[in-house]
Amino acid sequence: MLETYRKHVAERAALGIPPLPLSAEQTSELCELLKQPPAGEEETLLELLRDRVPPGVDQAAYVKAGFLTGIAKGNITSPLVSPKYAVELLGTMMGGYNVHSLIDLLQVESAEIAANATAALSKTLLVYDAFHDVQELAENGNPYAKQVMDAWANAAWFTNRLQLPDSITVTVFKVPGETNTDDLSPAPHATTRPDIPLHALVMLESRQPGSLETIVNLKQKGHPVAYVGDVVGTGSSRKSAINSVLWHIGDDIPFVPNKRSGGYILGSKIAPIFFNTAEDSGALPIECDVTQMETGDVITIHPYKGEITNAAGEVISTFSLKPDTILDEVRAGGRIPLLIGRTLTDKTRTAMGLEPSPLFIRPKLPADTGKGYTLAQKMVGKACGLPGVRPGTSCEPLMTTVGSQDTTGPMTRDELKELACLGFSADLVMQSFCHTAAYPKPVDIKTHHDLPDFINSRGGVSLRPGDGIIHSWLNRMLMPDTVGTGGDSHTRFPLGISFPAGSGLVAFAAALGVMPLDMPESVLVKFTGKLQPGVTLRDIVNAIPYAAMQRGLLTVEKQNKKNVFSGRIMEMEGLPDLKLEQAFELTDATAERSCAGSTIKLSVETTAEYLRSNVALLKNMVARGYGDARTILRRVAKMEQWLANPSLMAADPDAEYVETIEVNLDEIKEPLVAAPNDPDNIKLMSECAGDPIHEVFIGSCMTNIGHYRAAAKILEGAGPVKGRLWICPPTRMDEKQLREEGMYGIFAASGARTEMPGCSLCMGNQARVADGVTVFSTSTRNFNNRMGKDAKVYLGSAELAAVCALLGKIPTVEEYMNIVQNKIDPFAADLYRYLNFNEIPGFEDEGRVIPLEEMPRIEDILGMPAAAGR
Question: Which of 99, 579, 637, 838 is the most exposed place for a label (fewest CB within 10 A)?
Fold first, then answer.
């Protein structure tokens, strides 16, 4: 084992990174060696046992905990690990497989071992229901359990950690302009994300080559390095982006291999999801003016004064720390450890009849204005058991639906292991494989094989490779007026509200069933007028930032950027009769506005139509053998319960918004596009007319089946397109229906390249466009190098995309309107139909592998009649 391991160490050392954590098999072999250690290997074996085994409920941790427990109880002996040391090492494993062993050791005859177990358990936070076992022992007179309860009540886990100092001197590493998460965690390297040190090697490889060498050199000044930028962390909700930054500027976490915490991140604007993920990871993110900071500058952060000074002692920037609890978060090692630890302390003090601990900075309730609540505030309020929640309130809403996708799923899995999660508390957790199914690498194939079992065994729902895009499926599982989250920035529910997050917070939400939230302010977007000829819903998506720019509320320029939407909830109304598939176009695109979340006011009728369709889809999933069947049918039962008595929340007439933006549809007379290479760079189509287009992509979560019918109608009979056309429907159901309708024959005649349902070019981690081309795409965002190296990317509707493919350029208004009037308008009612699965004969039985008699009975789920709501 050691010879093979040392070879691996040497290979990784050549890359400048540490070895991978030990697997369960390696840990088992290590434990055998520790029983009879080879001469001269003693220190190596102890270091491996202490520092290179993952904590929590990883299988390697299971082996380690069993070995150490055996030594502590005298059933196993090792000349290197005494019973006392074994107990000390059990205390470093965070929670999970070590907890019951430590509780057992509180009851042994050896006072020394019991005392060591007390010390170990006192700093263990992830105890979950085992808390009651310790409480019972304490109440029954066990003195060691009483000491553990006292330590938890006194927050010894917190007070033993250092407070943030009055001043922190750092060296600046600055990336001017905007840094998005694709810069920090490049999509083409997505498969390496769970391997934090390896993935960190590609940070900023395209955005600012040579950055890693610069950071190494800056560290020679003897100070921590602070990451500084004008706009930091926009784009996807990638915990991997924070992981990479902290690998280069953070500190090792004791007893947790290949992961770092801490660090300082300064930005004039820090994207909200990135900010929250930094909080979760123990970093100190600060929004402040960074114009007087340059790479190599030595500056001092004064966290309590809210000032930053240069080497001469001059104040160059000021700031206010947010949220109120940030100092406690940093001290605890992150927001997640603080929440878990503080909850344990509060729970213990309640059980002991004590007042809440004064040690913590408690969130302050904002002043109640006495006004009504917005729709979002009511939804979050309902999830907190309240009528509504005011902006600025720190709360922990119930998470009804949680989504995870495959390029972040392995990280979420690792976070769940660290959280010692063996079962989900969230009502429905879903895992997809939409980013890696089409062109899987060996590591992806392993993920496709292993991750479903991990999710299903905890009560989650796993999709299958080829099923399609996470959002197109997760939306089908939503409950009205509920709250959820997902490890993808486009987890933007058209029903209820979601707050997308990094994989750490997604794991927390899945495991504990709640998620910390500092309730954001809301911006109201109000649609008036009627949709004009030739203008699509995607044009209305682009009209929102366009309208904001006209009022000076949004700028494209990164330095001193204005963005009224950033970190706020966009609440939309004025289009109540939209189908849910259409509504998602609007909510989905709020990711590009850096919104914290979004809502849209819809009608009960369209919502009920959608849920009836979704009930049929979910029942078909169970028939096809998808797991976890009880979780799926529980959601079916709740949908049918809602259908039996349908109702939707609505904003109060006197609800308060930080800003109201009116989008008058009567004034939008032509398509709007996002010009290269910024989703905020909105222009009229006529401003871009004539620009050559080399490749066209029709796909992503921004599309639905109607878009493909419309594109096919435009292409029908026109022969091969000019340039390259990519077609990628969002789900296997869309693909099947389009094939049956003959649309794929039209795509073939046009020379299109059809892709497996999924994300395809949108993320750019697998298939990519040619270098340096100009692209017209229906995808979500057009960051530099995302779809292809040096590609210029326009974003707009599927209809305009098809016209661009036909002409090889962006059309004039006259050219576009002529095609739409002749090929789209006469057939619009037939083209823009959506998949109502309950209206497809025999759909619930399609692909059935579970006989009807073996299906779980829905009437056993929640104890309600199966026929409710039909």
Answer: 838
